[in-house]
Design goal:
By secondary structure, the protein is of the alpha+beta class. It folds into two domains: 94 residues, Nuclear Transport Factor 2, Chain: A, CATH 3.10.450; 67 residues, Roll (Archaeosine Trna-guanine Transglycosylase, Chain: A, domain 4). It is 22% helix and 30% strand. A five-stranded antiparallel beta sheet has the order 1-2-3-4-5. It has a five-stranded mixed beta sheet with strand order 6-8-9-10-7. A hairpin with a 5-residue loop joins strand 4 and strand 5. The protein is globular.
Length: 161
């Protein structure tokens, strides 16, 4: 069975909507995605891929093409994935939370929440510590909740002396 059956190349209109969302919500310049293809997998995942989609038909058994960029959350909002933000997030200019200290960074990377007012819109945000993009958070009513995948979280005991 060809692997392309797992994916569908986004239409020009879908790509325009994806790029508009990324630009409006996070300030991503559209030109950074030139040369990339956006693919849909399943009902709620959008992937970004730097190759030509025909490669998916030529190589059987491909389970993943590119990186998962966005998915439709339970709240019916597009949520950027941690890996997408870690790869492309340096180009974003909006809705970026900058954690203030190591304790906040550890709490965030452990899956915790941080109660603090940030100058961002409610919803999914990019979370940074220093120059490093840690991943995606959800900000609402003065509380930042970590959306770092459980498999990527750190444990507090790793930081105890």
């Amino acid at each position: 069975m060809p692997s392309l059956e797992r994916y569908r190349v986004c239409s020009d209109e879908e790509v325009k909507r994806i790029l508009s969302f990324l630009e409006e919500r996070y300030g991503f310049p559209r030109h950074i995605f030139e040369g990339y293809k956006f693919l849909v997998r399943g009902r709620n995942s959008i992937w970004v891929f730097s190759g030509h989609p025909s490669i998916l038909e030529m190589i059987p058994g491909i389970d993943a093409a590119g990186i998962r960029a966005l998915h439709l959350s339970i709240r019916k909002a597009l949520k950027p994935t941690t890996i997408f933000l870690q790869v492309f997030g340096r180009y974003a200019t909006k809705n970026i939370v900058k954690l203030q200290n190591e304790e906040e960074a550890v709490a965030f990377m452990s899956g915790g929440s941080i109660a603090r007012r940030y100058d961002v819109d409610d919803g999914f945000v990019i979370v940074k510590f220093g120059d490093d993009i840690l991943g995606c958070g959800f900000y609402s009513d003065g509380v930042l909740k970590s959306k770092v995948p459980k498999t990527s979280r750190v444990k507090f005991e790793w930081f105890k002396e």
